[in-house]
Design goal:
Largest sheet of chain B: none
Number of strands of chain B: 0
Radius of gyration of chain B: 23 Å
Number of helices of chain A: 4
Shape of chain A: rod-shaped
Oligomer: heterodimer
Strand order of the largest sheet of chain A: 1-2
Structural class of chain A: mainly alpha
Structural class of chain B: mainly alpha
Number of helices of chain B: 20
Helix content of chain A: over 70%
Helix content of chain B: over 70%
Number of strands of chain A: 2
Radius of gyration of chain A: 24 Å
Strand content of chain B: under 5%
Distance between the termini of chain A: 28 Å
Order of helices and strands of chain A: HHHEEH
Largest sheet of chain A: 2 strands, antiparallel
């Protein structure tokens, strides 16, 4: 991938405009934003039901284990689950691309430094 | 040997060990990166343990177990908020912060803004949140001593607070981030082991049948099935709609506050790369989640085996439920000696927990003072590293001394609300500023300053006029009543206000720095230009 060295702006502005970075940014946001909305909604649902749907929450399911307890434990399960999913998504879809772009930026900066020295 | 003596001995062993660590750390602390960020040399799992250590405070351990023991299910609600909050940190904050900052939260905010106003605001917010939290822990330490050793004198409690304060000052001034991180790690191991042990014993006693444990707990509580349902403590039927709104407010403050707590945020800087920050949060979530599952068993176990009457007799707020349970289950399974030993172990662990958390808080606030206020605002970025670190150490001493004095004087007050308030301020002031900084192109200095002061100000303002400060039996000033805000936790209002202030402040100002936004966006996502680990 070549960066137009004559393009204006800092190295970061140039790289921000590249297709690769835009792809990284979009992969990140397309996972993180919806997931955040999802887990916050799920959590708030839990809080709201704890306040307003006590009868429902008190329904016994197995022995003394009621909906409230199961719902609460589910929050644990989903938290662990989402953490795992994020870690997997990041490892597969974000890290390799981020590493590549970072490498390119560092090479670009090294080259500019080299050019600057040559030009003296 | 009485359990008090054994407890003291165990605690002194912990102190001796951690002081040795502090001496080692002080020899290995040579520059600012070492002092503020432990040389960025901690691995993911190590930092994860430290995160757990920093987060699992006495409030988590004693407070939640006690809440569950006395009120049943509602205590569990609390722990869920504390846990889910970590997803906000994992998905939105940890890695991005590590890639764009150096030592403090303000580094990220000041990245693309005019540094002085933003660092001032961030510094004020950090110190406010940390002092609230610190005060609550100090007063808790005094109360704990009284309960566990049967001291009732103000002097004994005051002496404990002073002792805890002095130790914490030593850890921070001499050990810096390296020392305090290792103290957190040791404490986390001890806490998890102790809690796991008691949990295992309780489960064994009930044949690993959760249903029968809950059944016994419900029966013993005298409240029957209601004990296992939400509603005995938060949003009770007598409190009506206000109570339920308060519950939502509390829930919001807990889930959004964690990712804005300064002493948690600085933990993301102590690892070599952002990926390690991610790993450490993963470890933290695993530990913290497991720990809260333990407290579920501990709380209901205490309700079943000790009984709310017994617990409330010793401490009406329930803070001794966990140690009392340890004693009871030790007796049941191993006889009297077992009870004594187990009680001593859990009491020592509780002390260690308080000590580790206050050290972390003192480090965060003194670091912010030195790095944000002294170096960048007062000295305008011209202070040398040596000066900065020296000021950090001095301010740790001062903050520690102030907390000791305030802690001793605040003993008579019910300060549990301080932690909830700290979370509300973190969620209302810090989180909006951090999120907007990382994700919103248009955000600027006016927006950052508005978000922080708006969130902090509205939270404080609402609390001053809430039943927490006046107008109820549990208030700070029980004689008077100037309250008009009905909720105990301001989060429901102050969090949206913080976000709104950040938005309005931004659009009203013409400042716009596209170049800097590009830099922070690219750096935060790729790790280019991130601060590297110190080389020795």
């Amino acid at each position: 991938m070549s960066i137009d060295k004559n393009a204006s702006g800092t190295v970061y502005q140039r790289f921000q405009g590249t297709a690769e970075f835009q792809e990284l940014r979009s992969r990140f946001r397309r996972f993180v934003f919806p997931m955040t909305v999802a887990f916050l909604t799920w959590y708030l649902l839990y809080v709201v039901l704890s306040g307003w749907a006590r009868g429902f929450m008190g329904t016994e399911l197995f022995g003394t284990i009621n909906v409230a307890l199961v719902f609460g434990l589910l929050q644990f399960v989903t938290t662990f689950g989402i953490a795992y999913l994020y870690s997997r998504h990041a490892g597969r879809r974000l890290d390799p691309l981020a590493d590549k772009i970072r490498g390119d930026i560092e090479a670009d900066e090294a080259q500019s430094a080299g050019t600057a020295e040559d030009g003296r | 040997m009485s359990n008090e003596t054994l407890s003291i001995l165990l605690f002194l062993t912990f102190v001796a060990g951690t002081l040795a660590i502090t001496v080692w750390a002080s020899r290995n602390t040579k520059n600012a990166t070492d002092y503020y960020a432990g040389g960025r040399s901690f691995s993911g799992p190590q930092n994860g343990l430290a995160i757990g250590g920093d987060y699992m405070s006495a409030a988590s351990f004693l407070g939640i177990a006690g809440l569950i023991a006395l009120y049943g299910y509602d205590g569990f609600l609390y722990s869920i908020g504390f846990l889910v909050a970590w997803l906000v940190a994992l998905l939105l904050v940890a890695e991005l912060l590590r890639n764009s900052g150096r030592f403090t939260m303000a580094d990220v905010l000041a990245f693309r803004m005019s540094p002085r106003p933003v660092r001032t605001a961030a510094g004020v917010s950090t110190i406010t949140v940390s002092i609230f939290y610190l005060l609550a822990q100090m007063v808790g330490a005094g109360a704990l001593v009284a309960l566990l050793f049967g001291f009732t004198s103000e002097f004994a409690k005051g002496a404990t607070i002073a002792l805890v304060g002095i130790l914490m000052i030593v850890y921070v001034v001499f050990g810096g981030m390296k020392g305090t991180t290792w103290v957190q790690i040791v404490k986390a191991v001890l806490l998890m082991t102790g809690a796991a042990l008691v949990t295992l014993l309780v489960l064994t006693e009930f044949g690993f049948n959760l249903s029968s444990l809950l059944n016994d707990a419900a029966e013993q509580s005298g409240k029957g099935d209601k004990f296992l349902e939400p509603g005995l403590r938060y949003g009770t039927e007598e409190q009506g709609l206000t109570g339920k709104l308060d519950l939502i407010s509390l829930g919001l403050a807990l889930v959004l506050g964690t990712a804005g707590l300064p002493h948690i945020l600085i933990r993301f800087y102590t690892v070599p790369t952002a990926r390690d920050a991610r790993k450490s949060v993963m470890w933290g979530i695993g530990l913290i989640g497991t720990f809260y599952l333990f407290t579920l068993v501990l709380g209901f176990g205490a309700a079943a085996l000790v009984g709310s009457e017994e617990i409330a007799k010793v401490n009406p707020a329930g803070n001794t439920a966990a140690p009392q349970l340890a004693e009871r289950i030790g007796e049941i399974i191993f006889g009297d000696a077992g009870g004594t030993i187990l009680l001593a172990v859990i009491a020592a662990v509780a002390f260690a927990t308080i000590l580790a958390v206050v050290a972390g808080l003192t480090l965060a606030s003194s670091s912010s003072f030195a790095h944000d206020l002294y170096a960048h605002v007062f000295r305008k970025g011209k202070a040398t590293e040596r000066d900065e670190v020296r000021v950090a150490r001095i301010s740790a001493l001062v903050i520690g001394a102030v907390s000791i004095v305030l802690g001793i004087y605040a003993q008579r007050l019910n300060v549990a609300f301080l932690v909830a308030l700290a979370f509300a301020v973190a969620a209302s002031g810090n989180l909006p500023a951090i999120l907007y900084s990382l994700f919103w192109k248009r955000f600027n200095t006016a927006g950052a300053v508005s978000a922080i002061y708006g969130g902090l100000g509205s939270a404080l303002f609402l609390v001053i006029f809430s039943p927490v400060v006046s107008g109820s039996e549990k208030a700070l000033f029980t004689g008077s009543d100037w309250s008009w805000f009905p909720l105990n936790n301001p989060g429901l209002i102050s969090i949206p206000v913080g976000f709104l202030c950040g938005f309005v402040g931004t659009v009203l100002s013409k400042e716009y720095n596209a170049e800097k936004y590009s830099e922070i966006e690219v750096r935060s996502l790729t790790g280019a230009g991130a601060e590297k680990a110190a080389e020795h």
